[in-house]
Amino acid sequence: MNFVYRVAEFFQGRYGLDKLCYFLIILYLILGALNLFVQSLIITVIALIIAAFALFRVLSRDISRRQREAQIFEGLLNRFLYFTSYFKQKILQSKNYCFHKCPHCKAKLRLPRKKGKHTVCCPRCKENFKMKVWF
Fold first, then answer.
1. Same domain? 10 vs 75
2. By residue range, what is the domain housing residue 118?
3. Tens digits of per-residue pLDDT, 70-113?
4. Are 45 and 7 contained in the same domain?
5. Of 90, 94, 112, 96, which Cα lies nearest the Cα of 120?
6. Measuring CA to CA, how many Å separate 23 from each of 70, 74, 77, 78?
7. How many structural domains comprise the chain?
């Protein structure tokens, strides 16, 4: 019981684990697995730096700075997830729709996939332009 109490007392006031720390640990494990096949000193050093930074974040007492880092990471992660979901939807819808940009306002338009020449009215700028769908 004394050891458990000391460990709990040591971690009191420390930042602990968050999404960025989990990401760093997963990245460390991926680089470690990659290094089993490649056996590169550079990958080993990078993996150790990532592990040291993750441990530093877990044991840090500067909670406000770690929270700011976590907010920046989550903002970047959300942006990445938005773009990947956008491209996933674009790929899934590519059978029935084609995607073009308006030549006037550069808005992204999703148009039904019909072969031939079409006149399109942009919903944002209300300009008409001609478009040709090949397939």
1. yes
2. 96-135
3. 999 999 999 999 999 988 988 999 888 988 889 899 898 888 88
4. yes
5. 112
6. 11, 11, 10, 14
7. 2
